[in-house]
Amino acid sequence: MNLLETLHQFPALANVPDEQLQWVIDRAEEVSYPEETVFYKPNEPVEYLMLLLEGRIRIDGGGANDEILTYDPYSVLGVLPFSRMKTIPNRLVSTTPTRLLRLHRDKLHDLIHNCYELTEALVHQMTTRVRDYTKLTQQTDKMASLGRLSAGLAHELNNPVAAVVRSVDTLKSHLRATPEAFKTVMSLQLTASQVDSVTEVFFKKVDNQLLPDTKRLTLLERTSLEDDVTDWLDDHGLDDSTDLAGPLVEFGFTVDDLDWILEKIGDGNLVGVANWLVNNLVIEKLVSDIGEASRRIATLTGSIKNYTHMDRGGGKENVLLAEGIRSTLTLLDHKIKSKHIDLKLTIPDNLPVVCGWPGELNQVWTNLIDNAIDALPDGGKLEIVSELDKRSANEGLEFVLTKVIDNGAGIPEDIRDKIFEPFFTTKEIGKGTGLGLDIVQGIIKHHNGSVKVESKPGHTEFSVCLPV
Fold first, then answer.
1. Assigned architecture for domain 3-138
2. Cα dihedral 269, 270, 276, 277 sign
3. Average pLDDT of the residues of the chain
């Protein structure tokens, strides 16, 4: 197959007249590269339009074996007519022995004037490449966000899941001792009135424990109360008084409560009643722990559902910004706690809804909040504020303004204009893609909004303005 026939095998060039392809052949050069040859290093000038005749080329990312994209035979790459490409941020490597036909960018001006159909085909190739690149960068950022969130989510889920497993195992062992305790209870000589008195004080203590305004004992208060209850149990001849005192104090029993129970049931029934009380208090505590851990798991899975919007369509819809921001904070809670960050969230209940794509907006909050957390020192402050933009309201328009503010070191003035550029990052290798803020800017523009940054040492503020 001669070179002209080979060029007709390119899908992008299939309908280009022969004389225009021959024009390229006459002015281009054919080059070959052995396997695993790096023929473009990161940020080197791109000087050629390249037509891949044979072999395979890959674009590498920052890490080892980090393949971003591959080009198969009959692919078009490099600089194109009207393209603003000057450099590429990644390596180009020949995966197999490779043969290219390349045309220097100095010839593109003449190509545009002499080869209309070819120019049209290459411009169409450029728009396709831009569209594919946008999808790729968004997907890369989504995967990076997913990695960060999944690590935090795994940590957050580990605690309640471990609590459930631990409580279930303890409950299972505890219930094995119930038949023996049941024998003791059955041997008691209690009247119906005495039984009612015991069950009344039991459920009163359990119900009080569930009230949100119940005062929690300090460690010193708890220790002192446990000592008093232990002494009382010892004085009344109960074995294992230390084991019994803990659950009783946990549910707020005092020496006065025990005196009242003793008065109601008498000395002869005290051992059996005390053991029954403690046995059921332990079961109640274990069930309560399982319930609390399960609710935490439900909250986390609910946040994931809200964050991903897995049960909704992919079109525009009315978005409650507070819902997305809170879901994002739940999923980043592990990072916030690990750095002991003081978080302040101010979102009014009457904030107007925004019409947009909730999944995209959640990417915005993830990137901005995650960047702020990374910028903060241990014990730093993070503030998120959403409000109706008063300036726009005065002009008869409605915008919601959301600010993500941190008191980190700030963004140096010499790089402030670069932070929204793709692949620009100040993070260490492997810790940042340099795509986050570029994606944020693209999503905000997609919503006809704006994003701005103001920064000085001790105060960095990203402002996102979205139309209602």
1. Sandwich (2.60)
2. positive
3. 82
| pLDDT value at 118 more than 90 | yes
Mean pLDDT of 71-84: 89
CA 243 → CA 197, 256, 274, 281, 403, distances in Å? 24, 19, 11, 12, 52
Concatenating the DSSP letter of every residue in 54-121 gives ES-EEEE-SSTT-EEEEE-TT-EEE--TT----B-SSEEEESS-EEEEEEEGGGHHHHHHH-HHHHHH
CATH topology match: 3-138 vs 314-467:
no
Look at the pTM and tell me if it is higher than 0.90: no
* Residues 74 and 100: beta-carbon distance below 8 Å: no
Q: Does 292 or 307 have the greater pLDDT score?
A: 292
Parse the chain into domains and list their residue ranges.
Answer: 3-138, 177-293, 314-467
Q: Decide the pairing of beta strands 450-456 and 459-467.
A: antiparallel
Q: What is the pLDDT of residues 390-404, one digit of tens each?
A: 665 555 568 899 999
Rg (CA), the chain: 34
Where on the phi/psi map is residue 291: left (φ > 0), alpha (ψ -120 to 50), or beta? alpha
Copy the structure tokens of residue 181: 């305790």
Handedness of CA 356, 359, 363, 366 (dihedral sign): positive
- Residue recorded with tokens 């300036």: 391
Walk across the sheet containing 98-104 and list its strands: 29-33, 98-104, 48-54, 76-78
Q: Is the dihedral of CA 150, 155, 156, 161 positive or negative?
A: positive
Residue in the structure block whose two tokens are 């004085």? 235
Query: Would you say domain 314-467 falls under CATH 2.60.40.3500?
Result: no
In angstroms, rounded to a whole number, what is the distance separating the alpha carbons of residues 455 and 461?
6
Which tens digit of pLDDT belongs to each residue from 28-70? 999 999 999 998 888 889 999 999 999 999 988 655 456 777 8
